[in-house]
Each structure stands twice: as structure tokens, then as C-alpha cells.
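Section 3.1: Structural characterization of target chains.
Under the original work plan, the team committed to producing a structural model for every single-chain target entering the pipeline before any wet-lab resources were allocated. The record below documents one such target. The sequence was received from the expression subgroup and is listed exactly as submitted; it comprises 218 residues.
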Amino acid sequence: MTGYQKNAPGRLASVILNGWPVFLAVLLVLVSGLLVGSMSAGRMDRAKAEDLSNYIRDFVQKVGEVNFDPARIAKSAMINNAITVAAMYILGLTVIGIPVTLAILFVRGFVIGFTVGFLTGDMSLGGVILTLSAVLPHNLLHLPAVCFGASASVMFSLLLLKRNFDTAVRIWPGLIRYTAVMGFVLAVTLGAGLVEGYITPAITRLAAGLIVSGQGLR
């Protein structure tokens, strides 16, 4: 489970092989967040659901008139993503940070699950189109990166825990590899921020036009 320390250190295949239980646990946490979020969307208070539905429909109808600021959106997304990765990195340096790291991943899954669940449940095909255009593009990069980062954080915490029981366990090489992995995760999430700022809005605008012209608002 200490994928930083065993055979072929630094090789992705070795890390995945040695740390697969952690990867599986992280994936289960994410999936749990997605499922709970999706179910929560279907159990919203009727009045709140109606308000949210009206807001989304109004946005879809008027999105063509909205002047997006790609640079501002990208900057905000990149800052938020960087904060998330930095938090996971710092939490990985403490054993007690494991549940917090998993909680961050669960919340991320919950938000996405809720969004997708509400859109598809309220707008049917139009919701699927919005999901593919407004939710999917940047999350194709962001979610895998965050999952990998959470796994790395948990594995390094477990290495520190093992060090408490075995002073022969070397921390420094693992710390270097951990930092390198999280640096890669940061780079990918920053790329996701750029996608969210410069690509997602453009695709969403096109999708909204398709929904409106095709009477996809149901």
C-alpha cells in the first residue's frame, strides 16, 4: 500500500500496482459522492427545485446574450483547483489528513452528481446535452487528476503511519516522489481550469442554442 517505496520507484505502473487498494477506495468515495449527489437532486424541496429549474431555463434561453470573460473564468477555476491540490498535498503530510482528503473528493463527486442528476431529471435530453457541454469538458481532466492526487495523498499518509511503527522506513525518497506526483496533478488541474474558461463556455453556448432551437427545454 506504500506505493512510493517498493519496486521501480517513480514509475507510474509500479505506483498503481502497489497502491491499487488505495486507488479503489478513492474511486469508491468518488462514486459514492456522485450517487448521493444524484439522489439528492431528485429529493429536493419542490419549491427550491422549481426555482432552480426556472433559473437554468432562463440561463439557457439567454446564454447567447451573455458576454463571458474566458480569462476571468479560467483564472478563478485555476485558483480553486490549485487550492484543492495544495490542500490535498498538505493533508498528505499528516496521517489525520486522510479522512479530510477523502471528504474533499466526496464533496466534489456530490456536486457533480447533483448537477448532472438535476439537469437530466429536469430537462431530459436537454439536460444530457447541457451535461456534456457544461460539466464534462473540464472534468475529463479535473476528476482523474484529483482522484490520482487524493490517492497519492492517502498513500503518503500511510507511509508516514508505517514510519511510526518502523523507523527503518525511509521518508525522504517518498516525499520527493510525492511532491513530483502532486506537481503533475497540479499541472493537469490548471489545464482543466483553462478548459473551463476557454472551451466549456463556448461549447455551452452552442449547446444552449441547440436546446432552444430544438425545443429541448421540455
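Residues 194 and 217 are 29 Å apart (CA to CA).
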